């Protein structure tokens, strides 16, 4: 297979990589709609390719962002206990459902809904964190008893969303963990733990799409040419720029994008 360089695709990858480095969000929620709305990629190929794009780009971001000792492995294992089986079941359902020609329109709608959920999660993260903190402080016994099962359920939700749409592992995962572990996970541990969970999930889900022939390797290569330097620059700049403003601005863009996908 010959590689055809496309500077527009690499520029889109660089923009998305920059956002991932700056905010930890954007691997799926930004790249997938760009592929759909700007480049006209088929939804199935957009999801399959973006899973590998997000996994590789976030791996580079993780090496820049985080040192050792920040990952809560018990939380990661609980998430995987839900997300990996859910991903496998979703992959099996996609391969056996015989959705036919309407799969593109149906999948585009699912991606739009996932983008709007992601935007809402980003906008209301602080409120949900405070709700979880009050519950944890005032009813600690019941809250801690529910944590393991609720974390597995959160992982299952992420596994379904990520495998189906390539969206959700970043912003939605962070918000769920902020609610479930409001005292245990500091901001840096929260992001590190979420990314470590998200990368193997994206690879696991992406493997199913790769076997099914849904990954465009030429498209992936063009995107990575831009995203890998972009994510390093974003990660370096992230500590110098206001995260709240960045995430709220990105959430606003995602709302517009989700609505556009629903009405396109």
Major β-sheet profile:
none
Shape verdict: globular
Mean pLDDT: 86
**Percent of residues in beta strands:** under 5%
Concise structural overview:
This protein has 264 residues and is an all-alpha fold. It is built from eleven helices and no strands.
Supply database-style keywords:
single chain, 264 residues, mainly alpha, 79% helix
What can you tell me about this protein's structure?
- With 264 residues, the chain is mainly alpha-helical.
- The chain has one domain.
- 79% of the residues lie in helices and 0% in strands.
- The chain contains eleven helices and no strands.
- It has helices at 7-23, 31-37, 43-65, 73-96, 103-123, 125-138, 140-165, 171-180, 187-211, 217-237, 243-263.
- Helix 2 (31-37) runs antiparallel to helix 3 (43-65) and helix 4 (73-96) packs parallel to helix 7 (140-165).
